[in-house]
Amino acid sequence: MAAPFTLRKIGVPPNSANLTEARRRVFDFFRAACRSIPTIMDIYNLQDVVAPSQLRFAISAQIRNNAHVTDPKLFPLEFNCHLCLKVIDLLLFKGMEELTDIVDHAKQRHHIIGQYVVGEGLVQNTGSKDQGKSDFLKNFYTSNYF
């Protein structure tokens, strides 16, 4: 149970100096999150629901969802690097808070399963549920579930 203490040591400094430093911090966060997976599996008893490799994939998918932040088209030219770094630092801070909450057991098991197992599409069991439903309901459920 030493993982919560090690996570607090990492911390996210308020500002990244450049994109290289922000990139390094994102990789450090990913490493810390992957190292905490065994602890998370034990705390929430997830062995029967998901494999550690699937949780690693879910974490990397969350990071990849924000890969567009470094796109120069999103920010005005004169503030491009500055705003980009602020957005990356903010997303990194939110990720650290989420990881700390999970490791400190501030969430319940169904939150983790709903957000990181079913929400990421790792468990696909909608085929038998959708029999006999209209196309409207199928589209509604796929767009408004997680």
From TrEMBL:
Cellular component terms per the entry's GO annotation: mitochondrial inner membrane; respiratory chain complex I
Keywords (A to Z) from UniProt: Electron transport, Membrane, Mitochondrion, Mitochondrion inner membrane, Respiratory chain, Transport
Name the record gives this protein: NADH dehydrogenase [ubiquinone] 1 alpha subcomplex subunit 6
Top-rank lineage group of the source organism: Eukaryota
PANTHER family, per database record: NADH DEHYDROGENASE [UBIQUINONE] 1 ALPHA SUBCOMPLEX SUBUNIT 6, NADH-UBIQUINONE OXIDOREDUCTASE B14 SUBUNIT
Compartmental location: Mitochondrion inner membrane
Record has Cell membrane as a keyword: no
UniProt topology in membrane: Peripheral membrane protein
Family that this chain belongs to: Belongs to the complex I LYR family.
